[in-house]
Fold:
Amino acid sequence: PPRSTLFPYTTLFRSYLFEYAVTLPQGERHNLASAAISRGQLFTLNVSTPERRWEKDGDQLRVVAQSFKVY
Structure:
């Protein structure tokens, strides 16, 4: 079954970090999606890696996703 986690983080605007896995015919992928609301609009940034690389790449991808800012 799909798993997801929602992590709100504090910035000058309302923003969220979603972490979830997707199973595709090519294999499972680990995903992070950063979402922010600013000026009445929704902005998103998504990063993804094959599950087998998550242990190696996960921390760096989390830094990228958490650095997403809108003004």
